Each structure stands twice: as structure tokens, then as C-alpha cells.
Amino acid sequence: MRVLLVEDDRPLAQALASRLAEAGHAVDVFSSIADAEAAWTLAVYDLAIIDVMLEDGDGRALVRTVRAAGLATPTIMLTARDEIGDRVAGLDAGADDYLVKPFATDELLARLRALGRRTGDPAAPEFRIGNLIYTPRSATLIVGDRPVQLTAREHAVLERLLRAGDRITPKRRLGEYLFAFDREWSDNAVETLIHRLRKKLSGAGASVELKALRGLGYLLVEVPK
């Protein structure tokens, strides 16, 4: 998933970004409301983590602004204050969850997973194409009757392609989804991931083909056997 992290405590932001990246997420980190709001209008985020007290204002104002603009990105607020009134104000501003500092990073990751499950597409608890079954909630891939192990980024690629259905996913869009703003990436990085995923699907006997359409992007299609 692509995550927006807005936190002006640099050591905390770096630690959280590192753990999120280890879990396979692309993380864009900003320390101000102004920069975060600009990024939010340019990129599509799966989840957002917003500190309440930021260097240029109240993080709740940022959430109100993006909600008013129609952005429904699932959002967790971080705060050092545990008063009920503060938590109520954050939820009323449009946040979906609240976490009080200090907190264990594992708890934040668990809350992100739970929030992702609650806000995911209820009509698609699993994807089926050919002899492939993919369950996003548990990040499990079954080909035929065998589980197939994927890396976090391979999972992200597969889910993105499955959600696209019969629509082509451009290489640039896939790269922007997989990698953060502050991390350089190349077409080769995306192509390497596609190659690895294609090899694992083929090796498992999947009756699907991961097609690369020159100049357009990628498409996952069923190939009858």
C-alpha cells in the first residue's frame, strides 16, 4: 500500500517510515500541513497517518480539508494528548482511528491492517482468475491447490493488477504506487518486479499470463490450458 505519513518529529517519522517500508509499504513523509496537502492532491494514498500537532498547524484541519475535497483516504491520527475531547475532535474532523503517543509500532501496523480490512472493497474479498485465487485481507495466493510465496512488493503488484481487471495498468502508475516520492525508482525496478512475479506464477503452473504491452503497461489475463 501507499501510505502518507505527516509527522514533524523527525526521529519518530524516520522510525515509522522504516518499519512501514519493511512491511512492504511505499511511504511519503512530510512534516507540514502545506506539503502534505499538496502531495495528497497529486497522489492516491491507501492510508494516511497524521500527527495532530504539526509545525504549521493542527493536523485535524488537514483532515477536514481533504474530506471536504472528497478524499476518503482511511486516516489514523497520532497525538500526545489522551483527553477524550481531543480524540472526539479528531474523529469528528474525519479521522477513522486515533493512537496516543507513545505507542508500539506493532500496534500501529496492526491498526493499519485492521483499517485496511474495514475500508477495503467488500465486494471483492478475493480475486479469482484462471486457477489463481488471491485473498487481499490475508495476502495469500493459491495457484491450483498450492500456496505461492510472494514478497511484499510482489503482493502489491499482483493486487494492483487484479484490481485493475481488464484495464491496462501503466508502468508509471505502478511505479508511483510502489515507491515513495523521496525514493528514486526506474523503469527497470518495475520491470524486475514484473519479471519475478511472472516467473513465480509460471513456475506454480498458473493459467494466467502477465502481459507487457509496449508503451502502454501491464495486464493480467487468463490463458486456457
Descriptive account of the structure:
The chain is an alpha/beta fold and 225 residues long. The protein has two domains: 118 residues, 3-Layer(aba) Sandwich (Rossmann fold), CATH 3.40.50.2300; 96 residues, Winged helix-like DNA-binding domain superfamily/Winged helix DNA-binding domain (Arc Repressor Mutant, subunit A). Helices cover 43% and strands 24% of the residues. The protein has eight helices and 13 strands. Strands 2-1-3-6-7 form a five-stranded parallel β-sheet, with helices on both faces. It has a four-stranded antiparallel β-sheet with strand order 8-9-10-11, with helices on one face. A hairpin with a 2-residue loop joins strand 10 and strand 11. Helix 2 packs parallel to helix 3 and helix 6 packs across helix 8. The longest helix is centred in the C-terminal third of the chain and has 17 residues. InterPro entries: CheY-like_superfamily, OmpR/PhoB-type_DNA-bd, Sig_transdc_resp-reg_receiver, WalR-like, WH-like_DNA-bd_sf. Pfam families: Response_reg (PF00072), Trans_reg_C (PF00486). Keywords: DNA-binding, Phosphoprotein. This is Response regulator transcription factor.
